[in-house]
C-alpha cells in the first residue's frame, strides 16, 4: 500500500497532501453520530473544514448519522450495499460487531514508523481496551467518555448537606438522596435525590454499579459474559432498591435524553450521565453544580464509553491514507483540546492536557478533570461479538427488574443463558 503521509510527533497543523493532490483528488465520506447535548456537530464540522482548507487535495463529506445506534446501522447497511463510508465514529463497544461483519481494517498497517507507533502508544490504556484485539488496533479513541455524577450544590445546601462534597459510597448516595428528595403537601415528589437513566444506554450506567461492586460484565475476548455473577445481581438489586426501598429515585424506566433537562429544572438533585454532557450542563444549569467520580462499593470504578474512529473496507489506498492522516491530525493536541473544551468529552491522550488551552480550561473549570482522573479506575465498556443482540438481551433484563416484572437474579440468569447461546460459537 502507498505509504501514508501521516502527522508526525506533536505537530498540530494539518499536513498537506499537495505533493500528489494535483493528480489525486481524494473524496472521503465520514459518518459522525450526535447523541449528547452541546456543541458536538458544529465543532466537528469546524475542525473538518479546517483540515480540508489545509489539504486542498482532500474533500471530506461529514454525514451526521444520528445516534450511535443509527450510525452503526447505517454504516453496516451502506457497506452491505457496496457504498461504505471510508471513515466513521462508532461506539468503541461495537468493535467486535464490525470485525464480525468483516467491515473494517486495522490501523496498524499505516502506523509503521517509530513516530507513528509512539503516537499510537500515547492514548490512555483504559480507552485502548475497547480499541484493540488480537494484537491489532481497530479503533482510535476520539469522542470518549466515562459516566460521572453531577450534583446541584444549591439543593445540597438547602438539604443541610455540604454543597462541595458529593457522595463517595453507595451508602452515602442513599443517605444524601433521602435528604434531597422533596415532597409537596400532597406527598407528591417534586425533587428526587438521584436519577440514573435506564433507557438509551442502560447497560452502560449500570455497568458503573457492577464495576464498583467488583464485577466485570464480559471478558476481554468478547465471547463470554458474566451477567449472573452474584456481584452483578447485587448491583442490580441496589439500583432497584433506590426506587422501591429507599425512595430516592423515580420508579420505572428513566429516560436518558430527558435527564439533563430534569437536572436543570430541579426535578433531581443528582444525576449520572456521560462526561460528554459536561459542556451542556455548564452552559445550561441555572445553578452552581459539582462533578464527581461515581460512588464506590467494593472499589472505585466506571466503564469507559463513547466512540472510536474506524476505517472501512472498500476504500482506495489513497482514501485510507487520507483518512488516517485526518485521524492523526484531529487527535493532535490543539485540535483535541478544542474538541474537549467544546463538548466535555475526555481528551484521549495525555499530551492534550499539557496544552496551554487545556491548562487554562481546567484552571477555570476543574470539573473537567474528574473523568480524566477516573480513568485510573475505569474498565472496558461491555463489548462482545454480536454486541447489539447481547446488550439488547442485557438491557431487557435490566428493564424487567427495574419495572418489577422479575427479580434481579431471575432476570440476569435468563439473560446469561441467552448470551451464552449466542456467544458459544465464538469461543
From TrEMBL:
<comment type="similarity">
    <text>Belongs to the bacterial solute-binding protein 1 family.</text>
</comment>
<keyword id="KW-0574">Periplasm</keyword>
<dbReference type="InterPro" id="IPR050490">
    <property type="entry name" value="Bact_solute-bd_prot1"/>
</dbReference>
<keyword id="KW-0732">Signal</keyword>
<feature type="signal peptide">
    <location>
        <begin position="1"/>
        <end position="25"/>
    </location>
</feature>
<dbReference type="InterPro" id="IPR006059">
    <property type="entry name" value="SBP"/>
</dbReference>
<protein>
    <submittedName>
        <fullName>ABC transporter substrate-binding protein</fullName>
    </submittedName>
</protein>
<dbReference type="Pfam" id="PF13416">
    <property type="entry name" value="SBP_bac_8"/>
</dbReference>
Amino acid at each position: 500500500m502507498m505509504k501514508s503521509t501521516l502527522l508526525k510527533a506533536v505537530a498540530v497543523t494539518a499536513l498537506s497532501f499537495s505533493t500528489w493532490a494535483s493528480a489525486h483528488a481524494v473524496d472521503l465520506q465520514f459518518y459522525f453520530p450526535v447523541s449528547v447535548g452541546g456543541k458536538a456537530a458544529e465543532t466537528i464540522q469546524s475542525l473538518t473544514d479546517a483540515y480540508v482548507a489545509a489539504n486542498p487535495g482532500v474533500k471530506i463529506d461529514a454525514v451526521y448519522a444520528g445516534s450511535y445506534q443509527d450510525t452503526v446501522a447505517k454504516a453496516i447497511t451502506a457497506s452491505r450495499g457496496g457504498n461504505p463510508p471510508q471513515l466513521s465514529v462508532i461506539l468503541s463497544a461495537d468493535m467486535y460487531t464490525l470485525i464480525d461483519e468483516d467491515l473494517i481494517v486495522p490501523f496498524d498497517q499505516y502506523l509503521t514508523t517509530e513516530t507513528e507507533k509512539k503516537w499510537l502508544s500515547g492514548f490512555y490504556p483504559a480507552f485502548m481496551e475497547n480499541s484493540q484485539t488480537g494484537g491489532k488496533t481497530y479503533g482510535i479513541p476520539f469522542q470518549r467518555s466515562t459516566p460521572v455524577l453531577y450534583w446541584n450544590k444549591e439543593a445540597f445546601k438547602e438539604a443541610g448537606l455540604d454543597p462541595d462534597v458529593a457522595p463517595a459510597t453507595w451508602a452515602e448516595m442513599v443517605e444524601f438522596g433521602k435528604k434531597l428528595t422533596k415532597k409537596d403537601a400532597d406527598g407528591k415528589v417534586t425533587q428526587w435525590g438521584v436519577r440514573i437513566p435506564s433507557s438509551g444506554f442502560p447497560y452502560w450506567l449500570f455497568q458503573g454499579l457492577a464495576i464498583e461492586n467488583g464485577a466485570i460484565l464480559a471478558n476481554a475476548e468478547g465471547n463470554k459474559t458474566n451477567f449472573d455473577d452474584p456481584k452483578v445481581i447485587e448491583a442490580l438489586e441496589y439500583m432497584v432498591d433506590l426506587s422501591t426501598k429507599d425512595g430516592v429515585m423515580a420508579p420505572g424506566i428513566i429516560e436518558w435524553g430527558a435527564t439533563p433537562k430534569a437536572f436543570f429544572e430541579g426535578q433531581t438533585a443528582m444525576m449520572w450521565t456521560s462526561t460528554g454532557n459536561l459542556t451542556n450542563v455548564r452552559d445550561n444549569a441555572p445553578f452552581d453544580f459539582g462533578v464527581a467520580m461515581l460512588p464506590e462499593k467494593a472499589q472505585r470504578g466506571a466503564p469507559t464509553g463513547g466512540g472510536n474512529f474506524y476505517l472501512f473496507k472498500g476504500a482506495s489506498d489513497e482514501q485510507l491514507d487520507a483518512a488516517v492522516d485526518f485521524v492523526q491530525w484531529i487527535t493532535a493536541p490543539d485540535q483535541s483540546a478544542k474538541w474537549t473544551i467544546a463538548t466535555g468529552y475526555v481528551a484521549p491522550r495525555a499530551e492534550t492536557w499539557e496544552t496551554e488551552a487545556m491548562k487554562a480550561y481546567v484552571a477555570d473549570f476543574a470539573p473537567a478533570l474528574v473523568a480524566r482522573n477516573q480513568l485510573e479506575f475505569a474498565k472496558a465498556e461491555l463489548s462482545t461479538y454480536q454486541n447489539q443482540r447481547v446488550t439488547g438481551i442485557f438491557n431487557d433484563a435490566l428493564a424487567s427488574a427495574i419495572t418489577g416484572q422479575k427479580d434481579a437474579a431471575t432476570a440476569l440468569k435468563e439473560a446469561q443463558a441467552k448470551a451464552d447461546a449466542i456467544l458459544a460459537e465464538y469461543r
